[in-house]
Specification:
Blueprint lengths: L7 H19 L7 E4 L4 H9 L4 H13 L1 H4 L6 E4 L7 H13 L3 E11 L4 E3 L4 E2 L2 E2 L7 E10 L5 H10 L7 H13 L4 E2 L1 E3 L15 E3 L1 H5 L2 H4 L8 H6 L12 H14 L9
Helix pairs in contact: 2-3, 6-7, 7-11
């Protein structure tokens, strides 16, 4: 996420993924190693304003720092996707949105919730300690607006079943236990858009020009948009589903609950390991 320059946590993830990719290549396997940057959202807009720059200018500068890690760390990734890429990323993200919409998995409603700018996500009272986000130590903003929602709650049992059976493997075990406890509580439908007047920096909702895609359909879809999901390319059919998503622990819920729910909703296979 490009609200700031890369830090040592990013370096750790890059190198872990690189070790996996090199090991598999040495075993004579066909490897496609993808990484990239999530560039949209309120936090980016505010960081750009604080730096006295336009969002486009700001993300160009920070994204270049991430891309330059390839040479600095001798990384071997095959592709680098940017979510601000209107040619490579946007068509696939919008196709995924329309697939969800056409299958009746999206609906519109008025919503009042607690919004954490640090997370770029709506959070609940359970996520707060003394009224502040447990991770960012700041009080969330109370937001009331009409948004598009995704019927994530429909997929709680199916995701739980796939994790229990090992079809979707979560490593390490402690993180598997963490996501299983969340699934036992039951997933809730999630906000999938923000009004354009409040968030213009992002991918436009294809069937509603007054709304901008919220982070889920935009950022998470990068794994398939980079492969050519928009036009059902040979590369997409060859390399999806991913064998491994290498992620940071703070985005486990997004990758082990929301992303599988989206994929199930449009009939795509799940990644094999997170």
């Amino acid at each position: 996420y490009v609200n700031a320059a890369p830090h040592i946590g990013h370096v750790l993830e890059f190198i872990q993924a690189d070790v996996l990719a090199r090991y598999r290549r040495q075993a004579c396997e066909d490897v496609f190693f993808l990484t990239g940057v999530d560039e949209h959202g309120v936090k980016i807009v505010r960081a750009a304003e604080a730096a006295g720059k336009l969002p486009e200018e700001f993300v160009d500068e920070i994204s270049l720092k991430f891309k330059e890690l390839k040479e600095a760390l001798n990384l071997s990734f095959d592709d680098f996707i940017r979510t601000s890429d209107k040619e490579r990323h946007w068509p696939g993200a919008q196709k995924l949105w329309l697939s969800l919409y056409d299958s009746g998995k999206l609906y519109k409603k008025k919503y009042r919730g607690l919004y954490c700018v640090g997370h770029e996500a709506f959070i609940t009272e359970k996520d707060l300690i003394d009224g502040k986000c447990r991770d960012h130590k700041k009080e969330p903003e109370v937001i009331e607006e009409e948004n598009w929602f995704f019927k994530l709650s429909k997929y709680t049992k199916e995701i739980k079943s796939k994790i229990e059976s090992g079809e979707l493997k979560i490593v390490p075990e402690s993180r598997k236990n963490e996501i299983m406890s969340l699934l036992l509580e039951g997933l809730e439908d999630i906000s999938f858009s923000r009004p354009k007047k409040d968030l213009s920096w992002g991918v436009p909702v294809p069937n509603d020009p007054e709304h901008t895609m919220y982070v889920w359909c935009d950022a998470l879809s990068n794994y398939i948009t980079a492969l050519g999901y928009a036009d059902d390319s040979e590369k997409f059919r060859k390399y999806w589903p991913a064998d491994v998503h290498v992620i940071g622990k703070d985005i486990l819920r997004f990758h082990a609950a929301i992303w599988p729910g989206m994929l199930l909703a449009v009939g795509l296979e799940l990644p094999k390991t997170i």
